[in-house]
């Protein structure tokens, strides 16, 4: 799955994102609104991750969505 599909289906995929990163709040989801850079920033903020680590986690999550 590419990120354009995630962005287009954000409302449907929010549940999957919430399962993966439970510390994200409803306000975080509203701020992210399907934007990858915003999700990366929120992961850095909530989980204390480095940008590269957050980006890697997002890519790993994205790859798992293809298999689902």
Could you explain how this protein is built, in words?
The chain has a single domain, classed as YjbJ (Protein Yjbj, Chain: A, Orthogonal Bundle), CATH 1.10.1470. 78% of the residues lie in helices and 0% in strands. It contains five helices and no strands. It has helices at residues 3-8, 10-20, 26-32, 36-47, 51-67. The longest helix has 17 residues, at 51-67. The radius of gyration is 11 Å and the shape is globular. It starts with a helix and ends with a helix. The mean pLDDT is 93.
What CATH calls the topology is Protein Yjbj, Chain: A
Distance between the termini: 10 Å
Strand content: under 5%
What's the rounded overall pLDDT mean?
A: 93
Q: How do the SSEs run, as a string of H and E?
A: HHHHH
Q: Class in CATH?
A: Mainly Alpha
Keywords:
Protein Yjbj, Chain: A; mainly alpha; 68 residues
Please outline what is shown here.
78% of the residues lie in helices and 0% in strands. The chain is an all-alpha fold. It starts with a helix and ends with a helix.
List the helices and strands and how they pair.
Blueprint: H1 3-8, H2 10-20, H3 26-32, H4 36-47, H5 51-67
Helix pairs in contact: 3-4, 4-5
